[in-house]
Each structure stands twice: as C-alpha cells, then as structure tokens.
Write a structure and sequence with these properties.
conserved putative lor/sdh protein from methanococcus maripaludis s2 fold; Elongation Factor Tu (Ef-tu), domain 3; 5-stranded antiparallel β-sheet; 6-stranded antiparallel β-barrel; alpha+beta; Helix Hairpins
Length: about 425
C-alpha cells in the first residue's frame, strides 16, 4: 500500500488517477508550502481608505450644489412672480367707476299706497221697470250724456199721457173761473152782487188756478220719469262694471253700471306721524308702479288728514296724480317718495361706492393709475336715485369705484380703459 503523509497545514491524498511520472510502489514526497512573507510598513494610505473619503467629500459637494440650486431657483421664481404681479393691472369697466360730481340732493320720505280714480260713480236707475236695452259693457269709453241703457217706457208713457189730460182739464176749469171772476168783478162795481158773492167767485178762481199748478207739477214728474227711463253717462269715463243685463227687472236706485274717470288719480298713503311736520300741501311726488319698468310718474300732495289712525298712529296723505294718457288704472300699487327737502349743490357719489369696515366709512378711488382708499364723512341721501352726499373726504372729479369688487388692494395698479400691453386682472364683483 502506498504511503500517506499527514500535515497540519496541508494534506495530500494519493491520487486515484495514475500519474505518468509516478510508478506504482513509489512513495509520495510531501510538498511543503511556505508561510507568506511579512509585509513591509508603508507611508501611504491604502486605496480603499482613499476611495471612501473621496466619495464622502463628493457627496457633500453634490448636496451643497443641489441646495444652492434650489435656493437659486426659488429666488429666480420669486423675482419672476414679483415682476409678473407688478405687470398685472386691475381693469374696471366704465360702468364700474363713477366720477365725483356736484349737484343738488333731495331728502325724501318713502310711501306706498293704492291708486284710485278721483271721479267715479255708481250709475243707478231712477225708475222701476224692465231694462229693454243695455248699450255698453266693461271697458267701453263713454262721453258725458251718452245713452248707456234704456228702461221700458210703456207704463211711464201712459202716466205721462194721463197727466197731460189732467192738466188740460185743470186749465179749462181755470179758464171758466177766470171768466166768472172778471164778470162778477164788474157786477160788484155796479152793486148788482154782494161782496160775499164776489168772494165766492174769487175763491173758485183761486182753486182752479191751484189745480192747474198741481197738474203742471204732476206732468213734470211724469216727464222726468219718462226722461229717467233713458240712462245716460253722468260724465266722460270708462265703464268699470256692468251690473244688469237686458230683460232684467230693476227698481229705483238699483245699480246698473260703475263708471270711472281715469284722467285724474289719487293715492291714499299712510305716513309716519313724525314725518308730518316736514310735509306740506303741494310738495312734489315721484313714484313707480309694477309693470312699467323704470318709468316714473309724478304728482303732488293734495291733502293731509288732520287725524292719525288709532291703531297704526299713521296719518293719511292724499296724492293727486294726473293721468291724461290713462296708463294708470284703479287698484294699482304705487311706491315712491315725497320730496320734502332740497340741499344746495354738494359733492355726491353712488351709495354703492361707500364701504364700512371696523366702524370706518371709506371709498376706493383710482388716482394716478393706482387704487387708493379715502375716509369720507356722509350727509344726506337720495335713495330713489341711489346717491349720497359726501361732506368731507372727496373732491370733485375723482374717480370712485362704485362696484362691489373684491380683492382691492391699496397701491395696486388700476385702469379704467382696456390696456393692450401687459396682462390685466379681472375685477371680481362681490
């Protein structure tokens, strides 16, 4: 058997494969492996340590470069934003800006009430009978004296004929009594009859004369009834209601038509008792009525009730309104103002331009191409026109922002006209 050599550092086993340089039966010479030589000390740092320090320094440098780039980018963007904000100009439409002007301003008292025609009546029948004709209907315009209905006159005509006959009979008797009085008066002068006989003749004569007068009165009544059977319009106006139709039986004072005259209207409006000392007859009035848009109607205070209402403690004022074109109708609701005072020409602005913040009243103006803020002191107001007096704080000719815009900043660029160059900011209304 081949020999085996064991070593603590290296063991080599017999090769199972036959080496051509070793013959069977030969012993294997052990090969000793020498220990590695000791390394000599060196003054230089190893490449591994050098690479770690370089990598750390490089990372720190990269971080510093990134931070500097970020700060530089932010600074550049901030400058761009500032330049962009400086280039934006707030744009106002001409309707959003009002120029401060001087004019009169009127103090007024608001009122509301219903319109009613001054002249209106209920046309009634003055005789009893059957309506034979009804000639008008609601909405028809009629003239003064125009026939609008007719009552059957057969019965009335018969009564009239009887009164005519009675008058003729009374006149015939009076003629005989007149002739007897004349004859007896001559006989009395000649002493042919006594005074008593003449007095009897005179009494018969006077009775006949009274009978004639009575017959004449009855005839006039019959004629009047005959005339009243024809119903006429008492004044020029418009038929508001028709209350009877052809063929209906009506009695005396039965309503047939309601007739109104729209040429002159009246408003009854309650006013606070505290405002009555400021009101006077003749003061001008302006008001609007629903359905007529911005059209204003005018009138004047005609009367003031001398007594207040018990429940509301308000005093009724009566406003006269000319209505020649007939546009206003009875029952319409009117809202307006009684002009009680007028100021001297003063500085006025739209009431929408006034703002109130933290107890301070101010307005925004556009001066030298920028938005400015001015504190103001207010005076009288004119609600109907939407104007208010500025006692202190504004001069005539200044442009005031009258629209309720949001985001206004003092010192921000602003313009009334559209600018071609540079971006513009839309004014947000709030």
């Amino acid at each position: 058997m081949a020999a085996r050599y064991n070593s603590g550092l290296h063991s080599r086993r017999e090769s199972k494969r036959t080496d051509p340089g070793i013959q069977r039966g030969m012993s294997v010479v052990p090969i000793r492996v020498s220990a590695p030589a000791a390394r000599k000390p060196s003054m230089f740092v190893s490449r591994k340590k050098i690479s770690k320090r370089a990598a750390a320094a490089l990372a720190v440098g990269v971080v510093l470069v990134i931070v500097a780039s970020v700060f530089g980018l932010k600074s550049t963007q901030a400058k761009k934003e500032e330049k962009k904000a400086a280039a934006i100009v707030m744009e106002f439409a001409p309707a959003d800006v009002a120029r401060v002007e001087k004019r009169e301003i009127m103090r007024s008292i608001a009122f509301s009430g219903s319109l009613a025609p001054v002249v209106q009546t209920m046309v009634k029948s003055r005789v009893a009978g059957e309506l034979s004709r009804v000639l008008v209907k609601e909405g028809d315009t009629v003239a003064a004296g125009q026939v609008i209905a007719q009552v059957e006159t057969a019965d009335l005509q018969a009564r009239l004929d009887g009164q005519v006959a009675a008058l003729e009979e009374a006149k015939a008797r009076y003629a005989i009594a007149e002739k007897n009085r004349t004859n007896n008066e001559a006989l009395l002068r000649q002493k042919f009859i006594s005074q008593n006989a003449f007095d009897t003749t005179l009494s018969v004569h006077d009775a006949a004369a009274a009978t004639v007068r009575s017959a004449e009165a009855q005839l006039r009544i019959a004629q009047k009834a005959m005339s009243d059977a024809t119903i006429r319009a008492p004044f020029a106006g418009i038929v508001a209601r028709k209350l009877a139709n052809t063929g209906e039986k009506i009695g005396i004072d039965s309503p047939v038509f309601q007739l109104v005259d729209l040429s002159l209207m009246e408003i009854e409006a309650p006013a606070p008792a505290s405002e009555i000392p400021s009101m006077k007859v003749g003061q001008p009035v302006r008001f609007r009525v629903d359905g007529f848009g911005n059209r204003q109607f005018e009138g004047h205070v005609e009367r003031i009730n001398p007594q207040a209402e018990q429940n509301s403690r308000a005093i009724t004022i009566y406003i006269m309104v000319p209505n020649k074109d007939g546009a206003l109708k009875g029952g319409m609701f009117a809202q307006g103002n009684v002009q009680v005072d007028r100021s001297a020409p003063s500085t006025v602005i739209p009431a929408n331009a006034v703002r109130d913040e933290a107890g301070q009243t101010f307005v925004y103006t556009i001066e030298d191409g920028k938005i400015a803020r001015r504190a103001v002191k207010l005076g009288m107001s004119e609600p109907q026109a939407g104007m208010i007096e500025v006692v202190q704080g504004l001069d005539e000719g200044v442009n005031v922002v009258s629209v309720r815009a949001t985001g206004l900043k003092v010192g921000a660029p602003a313009s009334i006209k559209t600018q071609e160059a540079g971006p513009t900011a839309e004014v947000k209304k709030g």
